[in-house]
Amino acid sequence: MNGNETVKAERGGNNDVYGYVRADGKALRNGRGEEILLRGVGFGQLAAAGGLYVAFPGRGGDRPRRIERMIRELVGEEKAARFWALYYDRYVAEADIARIAAEGFNSVRVPLLARTLLEEGEPVRFRPDMIARIDRVVRWCERYGLYVILDLHGAPGGQTGTNIDDSERDLPELFLDAEHRSRTVALWRLLAERYRDEWIVAGYDLLNEPLPEWFSAHNAGVMPFYEAVIAAIREVDDRHMIILEGVHWATDWSIFDKLPDDNVLLQFHKYWNAPDTASIQVYLDHRDRLNAPLFMGEGGENNKDWYAGAFRLFEDHDISWNFWTWKKMDTDNSPCSIRRPDGWELLVRYLEDGEKPSPDEAERILWEYLDNLPLERCDYEPGVVSSLFVRAPVRIPAAFYGYTGEGASYGFGGAQPERRGSGERTAIGACCPPWAPAREPRASVPPTARIFASSSPDGRRRTFNTAAARNGKRRNGCTWRCSPATGSHTAARPRGRGRQRTAAARRTAGRSACAC
């Protein structure tokens, strides 16, 4: 792209996707100097079987190398190679990128596996077919207006000693073998050389989730390793942002005493715990101490109620975020659900030491899976995306109205409900599910409730107290009303207002809350 800083979005694009992203104190800024948050999705490993291994239970199919071995055993080397070529081409296609942009995301996190991205032996060099696929995703993201985060999900030798980095011997061999570290440094230098002029690449995520706590004896080696990688990158690229993760699934930040570069984004991950401020306070404290922006780089694998709470939490605390994962098999908690092929259980049984399917049967099952990979063949789950952006239609548990306190996230007042007029469409979500912790017993809730929104047409976060303008006051083309009698809130948007107005209304719905 030769430094061109204009998003050439043919069918989409986001106004804040413009020019190189840079850390500026606690904020991220785009090429125009505007403060932005990254809001994105992650892919199962584009250079590995990330979208596939979650469909196989147990150790037999818990990582790419074991799935690859199974497929070779079932259909032979030649057909296995054909299977993987089709898998990589179909798992992420242009239609996926276009849909992600159209939904309002502004970034994607692209995980890489060194074993499949690099040729064997020395010198370190890319496999032409695999790096071409990464290049293609970068081109699509430029076209549709999505920043790209390159994430080394599986380093040479493996950085976790678990399935997520395709570990061969369940050891973090990156930190046990200097040759693996040297190879990883060389890999990042190659990536930086290749993408240094690509402003659409937001940054380099040096290492995914290094060293779980049972390998914490090696924690002292993480920062020196990061520093070696950064030095190699800066020899060829002084513009791209460096993204650093803590140890123990990116949750332990005790390794961060100081920043090793002046353009750093600090990343944590969040799964399966309470979406409240206390759970992320340690990261907020590090942000203040180190004067660096925050990125929740992986979170998901939960239900939509949790998403509504967790991703509002990140927004309220000005934390960039990325949802894991965009597409997987037979699910209702990712946006895209790949349909399970008939007979899939035969492959599962084989991995569990059951009967081996015939080559013809195995080929039929595997190729049906490939046929189901494209976006148009997936079952789309719009409720997942609605919960991430907290936009109508969405269910918001009462505990998750917001994290900035009464008078900003929620409150009570004497506003009167507004009758829905013609020309509006309405979406309703339950505010007070029976299991949610109530701020007050329902019977004591005032007959009407106050509505708050925290967004504005320029995309910057604002807090509006609409009680003064009465319930139903329009903000950015979106009307919010509350019905305490039924325990629901309503978001009504006018029809036919055009794409720009729709986007503004979507942002408003994505930052709105009611207390009923």
What's the layout of helices and strands?
Blueprint lengths: L21 E3 L2 E3 L5 E2 L2 E4 L7 H4 L10 H12 L1 H15 L2 H9 L4 E7 H4 L10 H17 L2 E8 L23 H18 L5 E5 L16 H13 L6 E5 L1 H4 L13 E7 L6 H14 L3 E7 L3 H13 L3 E5 L2 E3 L6 E3 L5 H8 L7 H13 L7 E2 L1 H8 L34 E7 L20 E3 L10 E2 L8 E2 L2 E6 L4 E7 L4 H11 L2 E3 L2
Parallel strand pairs: 4-5, 4-11, 5-6, 6-7, 7-8, 8-9, 9-10, 10-11, 12-13
Antiparallel strand pairs: 1-2, 2-3, 13-14, 15-20, 16-17, 16-21, 18-19, 19-20
Protein name: Glycoside hydrolase family 5 protein
Keywords: Carbohydrate metabolism, Cellulose degradation, Glycosidase, Hydrolase, Polysaccharide degradation
Family: Belongs to the glycosyl hydrolase 5 (cellulase A) family.
Overview of the molecule:
With 516 residues, this protein is of the alpha/beta class. It is built from 15 helices and 21 strands. It has an eight-stranded parallel barrel with strand order 4-5-6-7-8-9-10-11, surrounded by four helices. A four-stranded antiparallel β-sheet has the order 15-20-19-18. Strands 1-2-3 form a three-stranded antiparallel β-sheet, with no helix packed on it. It is globular and about 65 Å long. It starts with 21 loop residues before the first strand and ends with a strand.
